[in-house]
Amino acid sequence: MLPRRLALLLPNALTLIGLVLGLAGALALQRGEVAGAASLLVGGQVADVLDGVAARRFNASTAAGALFDWHADCAVAAAVAFAAGVAWAIPVFVLVQAWARVHDERVSGRTAAMLGVVGLALGAW
Prior knowledge:
Keywords: Membrane, Transferase, Transmembrane, Transmembrane helix. With 125 residues, this protein is mainly α. It contains 5 helices and no strands. The chain has one domain (4-124). It is elongated, with a radius of gyration of 15 Å. Helices cover 85% and strands 0% of the residues.
């Protein structure tokens, strides 16, 4: 069993790792490095899933941690949408429509962005 202090830090550390990987993926996407972006975004998504698993497994869920996770997810989703818009000159209204559709269907923006970039990478490959 993990010491309590480490158990409380692990989910937030995984959220931070997911945030960094996701933002790096958005930057790679903006530069046109679709395969690299897909790899980074998948890694960020894995970290995002694992932070929740760790929080539940070690009974380390906190309101601050949940808020940090939510903000990290939003930051990555917005960065990927912005990067896609810059890289491919996607009109803003298309991004807004897609964003609204994602949230009506209860699919996280981060997951939708990651799936879109993986699809682009597979298409480019």
